[in-house]
């Protein structure tokens, strides 16, 4: 194989590796949603928690009562790519979170951590550690 062809293959291989790293590593490097206040989400529409039972009901209650908390968090189920969701709160605007264990778990964990005084950056890190491995 001549030197020019080897050089071209090396460049192409590097480009493929960079693209793969960018695609598969995107979950770890996602931009964090900006800090928000409750007033920013006054009137936010989420589905009625009474439509659900068990943990799903709890998660929809959290979304309805604390939208400012969920709006600051990324959802790791992959709905950002498949459904265009921008944050965890978006999952609760429709039926998606009612059948998604990751959305439900993240909301419940976020409320528990927040109520325990955990800072938002630490909540994000904890959720990323617990749920990002599930993201496809």
Low-confidence stretches: 14-34
- Helical coverage, percent range: 40-55%
Global mean pLDDT:
78
Radius of gyration: 19 Å
Number of strands: 0
Number of separate structural domains: 2
Summed up, the helix count is 7
How big a fraction of the residues is strand? under 5%
Give me the strand/helix succession.
HHHHHHH
What composes the largest sheet? none
The backbone outline, from C-alpha atoms, is globular
Backbone structural class: mainly alpha
The N- to C-terminal Cα distance equals 38 Å
Provide an overview of this structure.
With 136 residues, this protein is mostly helical. It has two domains: 1-30; 33-134, no CATH class. It has helices at residues 3-24, 26-29, 54-65, 67-70, 79-82, 101-115, 120-131. 26% of the residues are buried. Residues 14-34 have low confidence and may be disordered.
Feature tags:
2 domains; mainly alpha; 136 residues
What's the layout of helices and strands?
Elements: H1 3-24, H2 26-29, H3 54-65, H4 67-70, H5 79-82, H6 101-115, H7 120-131
Summarize the structure.
This protein is an all-alpha fold. The chain contains 7 helices and no strands.
